[in-house]
## 1
Amino acid sequence: MRWMGKINPVFLVLILLLLAVAFLSPYFLQPAGYMNFLKRAAPIAILAVGQLYVINSGGFDLSAGALVTLTVIGSSILLNGDPSATWWVICVMLVIGAMVGVANAFVVSYLKVPSIIATLGMMITLSGIALTWSGGAPRGYLPENFRFFGRYLIKDVPLIQLLPVAVIVMIIVCGALWWLMHRTNYGKQLVAMGDNPQSARLAGVPLVRTRTIAFVVSSLSAVIAGILLGGFAGVSTDVGVGLELQAITAAVIGGAQLLGGRGTVGAAVAGALVLQTVFTLLNIFGFPKPIRDVVQGLILISAVALASFRRRNSGG
Amino acid sequence: MSKVKPLFEMRGITKAFPGILALDDVSFDCRAGEVHALVGENGAGKSTLMKVLSGVYQADAGEIFLQGEKVAFLHPLESLKQGVSVIYQEFSLLPDRSVAENIFLGREPMRGLFLDKQSMREMTQTVLKMFGDKHNFSAETLVGTLDVAQQQMVEIAKALSLEAQVIVMDEPTAALNDSECELLFNLIDDLRKQGRSIVYITHRIREIKRLADRVTVIKDGKIAARFDHVPETDQIVEAMVGRTLGQFYPELAAPDEIGETVLRIEDCSNARLHNISLDLKAGVITGFAGVQGAGRAALAMAVFGADPFVSGAVTLEGKPLNLTSPRQAAQAGIVMLPGDRKAQGLSLMQSVFDNAFISARAFSTPLGNPFRTNHADRNDIQKLLDQLDTRAASYDVEIKSLSGGNQQKAIVARWLALKPKVLIFVEPTRGIDVNTKSAIYRQMRKLAQQGAAIMMISSDLPEVLGVSDRIMVMSDGRIVAEFPNGVSEADVMRAATHSADEQIVQGVA
């Protein structure tokens, strides 16, 4: 039974929860059912993996949710329904995202502000910018070719019938970030730095560069999540509220260690799916939205408590 | 040999953990009024034996007698009540509480519903009186304001207040400097005179010679040797290691092994270092001696660029070099093995491989394959770790499961992958057992023979004198003397402690 200890429990939990949903709601077993589920899970999975980069580096990125909002609001204002502008607006948003990541990393690295505070400040700043820009209410609208990523379903796919574009985006982004984290020199340095920044520095790891890339990855993933959410949810001023905490919860459910050094991309994606499944279950039972928040909070605390319990027992 | 009855006696103790026989038919005793040194490599079973004595573990077989009566402690509190007190390396003191509160933690004297602070203070003072005037704190002093040696006294005072007849000390000098050690030794002498039994766990030969009445060497869970006197160093070492140890320190550099100057430091200073001038030659091990705070560690950090010089000139193989970060230094070929392995050397949750690979990865294409870096691939690192004789279940296990010596080898492997020109070893054998120590010295010599210039900084003076081809003595951030190998400890200590005055005299003259 020793091998059981090596399997991340998040995968077992995910399977159990999916079985429960399938049992309670047979619609879930239809392609339309599970593909819709994956489509809804895509932004949170992407955010969770981006967040994992910062968590593994030893920090938090609380600005991700506000950046999602800024992406949706900013895109709709810049586009104002003009489909020919979609591509450059997406580029502009990615550049803004990269700048936010660099700014976060700068404040953390050079001004020595703990990341939880630095990105909290960034979150408030970005929310303020989004609200100022929009004048407090959604303006403009997103053309169809922008909403393509979040909304479009490819039909008549062999075997699975339907394939949402959002799911393809999720697979590509998470796959690329899995490779960067687990199969490159950069990823290994990132995790080693989160484990012990002092020893990493004395081993020659460029801390500032490594950390900056982690924050930029997190911010870019927030922009991509924003593009997907704008696609299927449309424009609103609170689209990103609380997403950073969902992302952190998902990463932690996946076993990521807060303050760095341990956490895998696969488990973070599984964590995001667990969270989404729990939300689906609560919907099936007809609980209102505030209950979701209560449950999410409790899950976050229990996941961290369980993780430290497991570590204590394994002699960690 | 006198036939005094032992105060406690353990007979035929056997204790198995899953997959390992930690203690195999071990017998051990200690008489009243003696210090019995328990010696062995890390993982030999010393601490396990003492945990069986105190009731942390229960033996699978064997008997324990305390003052002639058979006992079986199920919990450390039971042994504590019967007068057996174990002082571990990591103290269990509360920093924000006073000395008295710590000593009586969990068994505070009460007067009705209230804490009887008055009698607690008086009882503490009575215990502290046993130290004579050696402690410089009172019952009310906050423990957090005490230094390590004083905290150790509080732990001992706690044991005394429990009227412990058997006091076990587990490597008590690990964090103490020389004068603090002397204080502790005197204290132990006093305890011995009071007729208590002291079990002293250590792997420092010097302390055995200073303190022990009897010595027991334990190896791989078995008694390897028992001495009713203090034996010669070689006898202890041989018993610990289980084979005849050729020469403890390797040969010095032969004249033809000494090469060109690799690193030249000229008149360099920073906040803690003053006018440092130094030549490091290929093939030479240069040792640095000095008291705590003399600037040896600061010099290592400066040469490695972690805490750089602000003035002066550094040249590497004749080319000027501006060392402002460890990364730059390592890039240029200067590397450092930090003194505090856990805090500065290791990513504890990562594998042995990841820790050994980290520097090769740091200087390779960021998007490259982490097991096929520009400097080393999996085979290279595997070979380096094998050559260093790194003992691990596999190189994929977390490095924190390895012993200190094996962790150190992973750090050495990390740097060897970059083929450095200058290696700075800071406290290379701190907390490492004797057998591995000798292996590390040999490794250092081998690196020197392969053309590296080596700086060695250590608080263990015999080690500096034994390994180094030349010895630099530091004091107050300056290099104050240089000696060839063969200098006596006394000469070095004199230079390290009195040089500041002499310099002034010389300056005047």
## 2
Amino acid sequence: MSDSDVLVQVRDLKVHFPIKRGVLFDRTVGHVKAVDGVDLSIPRGKTYGLVGESGCGKSTLGRALLQLTPPTAGEVSFDGVELTTLAPGKLRAMRKRMQMIFQDPMSSLDPRQNVESILTEGLQAHGIGGNREGRRKIISETLDKVGLPRWALSRYPHEFSGGQRQRIGIARALVLGPELIVADEPVSALDVSIQAQVVNLLDDLQDSLGLTYLVIAHDLAVVRHISDTVGVMYLGALVEEAPSDRLYTEPLHPYTRALMSAVPVPDPDVEDRRERILLAGDLPSPANPPAGCRFHTRCPWAQPTRCADERPALREIGGSRVACHFAEQIATGELRPHKVSAEIVRPEGEGEEPGVVSAPSEPGSFV
Amino acid sequence: MALLEVDDLSVTFARRNQRAVHAVDGVSFSVDAGEVVGLVGESGCGKSVTSLAIMGLLPKQPGLRVGGKAVFDGTDLLQLDDRSRRDIRGRDIAMIFQDPLSSLNPVIPIGLQVTEVLTRHRGMKGDAAAKEAAQLLDRVGIPDPKRRLKEYPHQLSGGMRQRALIAMAVACQPRLLIADEPTTALDVTIQAQILELLKDLVRDSGTALVMITHDLGVVAGMCDTINVLYGGRVVETARRRPLFREPRHPYTVGLLGSVPRLDAGRGEKLNPIPGSVRDLLPWADGCAFAPRCTRRVDACVGQPPELVLAHDGRSYRCVNPAPVPGLTPAEAAPVTVAGAADVPVADEPPAPAAGPVPAPREEEKP
Amino acid sequence: MTIISRKKKEKIDRLAELAARDDERGVSLWQEAFRRLRRNPAAMVGAVILGLFVIVSVVGPFLVPYAPEAQHWKDEIRVGFLPGVRAENWFGVDHIGRDQFSRMIVGARQTLLVGVVATMIGLAVGSLIGGIAGAAAGLGGRWGRAVDNVLMRFIDMLLAMPSLLLAISIAAILGAGLTTVMIAVGAVSVPVFARLLRGSMIAQSNSDYVLAATSLGVRKPKIALSHVIPNSLAPVIVQATLTLATAIIEAAALSFLGLGNNDAAIPEWGMMLADAQRYIDIAPRLAILPALGIIITALGFTLLGEAMREALDPKLRK
């Protein structure tokens, strides 16, 4: 793949949130390493799916990529332009090329704006469409694309059903004519039958508009369905990245295997046949991640050597990239899984961002 | 005789100056001893209200009307007074909720909450109760149970809280366990742990389990019998395998077509149900699903569809059910409907809405 | 097919068409809140009380039978006796021979004026400080948080002082008078409004739709003005209504303490109450009537405020 085909290139991206304590003066007592060194590239016109459980940093990664949360370190290059060092004005102008779809369509729409004003806002911010008539035309076309009726324009978000609200959110992202759309859990707040409508809509829009997607979700089945490449995240880092089909047929990382085996399939025959890899305990706190391989505390294949003290890097194995010291031995069956006893994990680490955090200092700001 | 027999249960919320809401509109199903029964449906189908009505946990408010019967072991739960219902609740029937944090009292240690159940229903006190509580926590897979007893709910993770809640539910070896979306708030690997735990508990103790969920994958792996709910009524009941292999009600067909499967290839199109749950026809005027149905015929509107009983205990509420592969249409559709022959099967793209039923106005793709 | 079922189907068709009428305008949250307010009986009672109060205070002074400062019945007053309720003095006569009814009516205007102006002062100053602090803290980054810190420490100082003490201190500095009462009562409510608006704005700044606007490339000042502030106003409006009630009571308290207007031509309920206490044995009505006036008006504002809180509460939205 040549460089010109790559739309987004992320290199060693880190987002650390300081944990602050203190009554009068805030002292930084540690960092929540929400994203801790992620490399990935998204080819133009393709879909990259990011999957992981809550607290793995996938949403933070999506926001850091769009510079909505300032990254602590690392680079994000969008179509050859480095975003992390871009001046605020230029970044604002770039925003029309990269948009976001949110999980909860209700909370991501301003309840006091009607649909027309929601859709006009971005156009006004970038001076697209010229006058009111020009904007109306663009908005009408966008409504058609997402399958909303024209009378929706004068209505307010609370007058729509969940699925339609998500369509409004998609329309808001589309109206600027972006190249990249970051969709953060685009369907998880919707009912099953509506999920399928939205998934199909996203698929159709990609076909007709040539969009590039970064889809972030906890539902492996949904992610696999719409993605060309899937990245699996665990505690702030990618543990495996593989083409969508290959990830299912040949999962290499123990966590991917466990995740895959945990997803219920609506087919009794499959459910009865397959073997579950049950993980012990909960996700460790991202404020205090385990040393070595982050997964070794729960890994059924963990070995006494290397796993606990050496952090595995992503390495290429037959078309996939995987961060496991013993991936080959596990794949061939040379290593067998063993029982792991659960450790109690305090829920402080739950959620992507703890209650007492403040954004790290923006790059380039004076201190 | 079934352990729990719910017959024509209806729950209506009537508010002043507003139209009455039929949250549950004639739900009937039964649970045999030791059986795992699933209630599946999307939000607003009445699955949670059904369980709350059976347990007598619906908030008492003016305008609430509960009708029908819920016979548990010979007694109609809906006719009981509060006191005897409380006795049955926790001892014979226990319930697990979706959000473990709000179901546990935040200012009381886990241990006290478990021993409270033991004291109330099993008359255990002091050390004996504490010992039993520790054993229960151990049984549901909470590590180091003796120390956990002194801890508060916020000190435990979501999965551990759900385990503690399950420990409380099974403390008195109930004969029926009702689990309302027990894993929806949890991550998928934790969900797998909890489902496995529930399966083990049911297998070991012979407790019957009613599993309420929106996730077809969860019921596929767990339930013996599955009831699919739509608009406050059961639209299809079947054993597990027949339901997934040959769903008859178009709504079941639509649900199955909507779920992306982990084992399907990339790019396979999903077959969503057009419209949204808001496009509901009152059951009195016909089939509630008719406005969204791709197999709709004239007979769907006018009177509520009869329950059709098919072989091996399956039943569906549809006048034009999806055909069973390999059977001739006549065999597949016990109720012969005029004009049904040219209706496309659900696998094909939906035909343009014909007939007198309002077309779905929401969510439908142009 | 039977005729009945066909009719039924036609009915359903019509219903569906009605529900999907294309020309129907959307209903904004404000409109919906207003509809809810209109259906609330408590709100209606509050509104009727306040409506009467406003009418009385606006037109009342032109219709009163006697001038409020005229001492027409001075001669009838003896030790231990004040003329009571009678045809010419509906509410009796006060301690220096003035008509109590006329004074009550004219006093209503003063009470309304003090309440409204004091609340306006509190609302304006408090919202300005709170708005700046909220916008700075929510959207301003590192420097914004510093600005917010400075402003909020100042507000905390105001908040730490007991409100009546603060009002008395201000009144002592400025000297007694109507303006003093307004400023003092207004100053007391400044920290409340500032805290409320700031907290509400910070909460809104963390919401998804602000993030969405940022990702659309909307400028921060525009986000603050068109998204954050409109969505933060509801609690402030409710508080303003409730503050009107407390402002009236506090203004009465200040007048009672002798810090209010000393001009006999302009009666005020609090002052009337203060004057009446010496005659509570022989003419309790002189104290009861102004007290009742204050209570009923405050009740009206409170009822309306509580009803508005319910109407604007997003949690109660369907």
